[in-house]
């Protein structure tokens, strides 16, 4: 008698998956009356189960914040792509090639840790012959990322 009551309890026990999925059976459908149990279960639980969100996860806030920051960076790199040549390009208002040369002279003529600490930029490691292409490449890489 105890085994029949245990099997009925096991057939009616359900587990809730993480992330708020509807109720799912334990997987006890391997016995001989699996078709009848599944039919009873499907008619018994046909109602839609509301998905409840877990508190304290901030998943929506995280998604919105990261996408907003990514959009801000995309706009900033787009503006840099459009204005770098006019502002700091080879024929711009203040050419960055001249500025980097003056920093190099100031720190002793070498591109080392002092130059990187004074002016931290990736341009130290690039070829300075075509500075406009370097600036465009940096802006396009930032937009792609």
TrEMBL record:
Membrane-spanning residues: 59-81
Q: Where is the composition biased (Low complexity)?
A: 1-13
Residue numbers spanned by region Disordered: 1-30
Q: Which UniProt keywords apply?
A: Membrane, Transmembrane, Transmembrane helix
Which InterPro entries does its entry note? LMF
Query: Carries keyword Transmembrane?
Result: yes
**Classification via PANTHER family:** LIPASE MATURATION FACTOR, LIPASE MATURATION FACTOR 1
Indicate what this protein is called per its UniProt record.
Answer: Lipase maturation factor 1
């Amino acid at each position: 008698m105890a085994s029949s009551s245990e099997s009925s309890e096991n057939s009616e026990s359900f587990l809730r998956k993480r992330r708020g999925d509807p109720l799912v059976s334990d997987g006890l459908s391997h016995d001989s009356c699996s078709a009848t149990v599944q039919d009873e279960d499907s008619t018994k639980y046909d109602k839609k189960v509301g998905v409840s969100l877990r508190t304290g996860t901030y998943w929506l806030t995280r998604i919105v914040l990261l996408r907003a920051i990514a959009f801000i960076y995309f706009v900033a790199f787009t503006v840099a792509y459009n204005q770098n040549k006019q502002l700091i390009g080879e024929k711009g208002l203040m050419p960055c090639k001249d500025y980097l040369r003056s920093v190099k002279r100031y720190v002793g003529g070498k591109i080392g840790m002092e130059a990187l600490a004074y002016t931290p930029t990736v341009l130290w490691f690039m070829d300075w012959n075509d500075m406009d292409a370097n600036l465009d490449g940096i802006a396009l890489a930032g937009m792609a990322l």
